[in-house]
Amino acid sequence: MAYRIVTDPQVRDQIRTLPADALPATDAMGVLELTPWNGRPYNEADPDGWMRQLDFADERGFITYLVLEDQDRVDVLNVTWFG
């Protein structure tokens, strides 16, 4: 089963402005599509929580997202790049 990835204009801008060496972010989106629960919990005190983070590019960036299991949907909330 594939999850539908939902982004808002702010997140699309964050992705568009990533440098070339952050291209694994596009691979990370593929991971979210297939296995969003592989990301680490956003809140370590709630390891089964719906809000997750997925690192990419050797942990130089991460994606914060929400898994809406009942809708087979992943809402990407933020893309952070440390470079």
Explain how this protein is built.
The chain has 83 residues and is of the alpha+beta class. It is built from two helices and five strands. A five-stranded mixed beta sheet has the order 1-5-4-3-2. Strand 4 and strand 5 form a beta hairpin. The longest helix has 11 residues. The protein is globular. It starts with a strand and ends with a strand.
How many helices? The count is: 2
Strand content: 25-35%
Q: Whole-Å distance between the termini?
A: 33 Å
Main beta sheet: 5 strands, mixed
- Whole-angstrom Rg: 12 Å
Helix percentage range: 10-25%
Average pLDDT for all residues = 92
What is this structure, in a nutshell?
Helix content is 23%, strand content 34%.
Sequence-ordered SSE layout with sheet pairings:
Layout: E1 4-6, H1 9-16, H2 24-34, E2 40-41, E3 51-56, E4 61-68, E5 73-81
Parallel strand pairs: 1-5
Antiparallel strand pairs: 2-3, 3-4, 4-5
Could you list some keywords that capture this structure?
83 residues; alpha+beta; five-stranded mixed sheet; 2 helices; 34% strand; globular
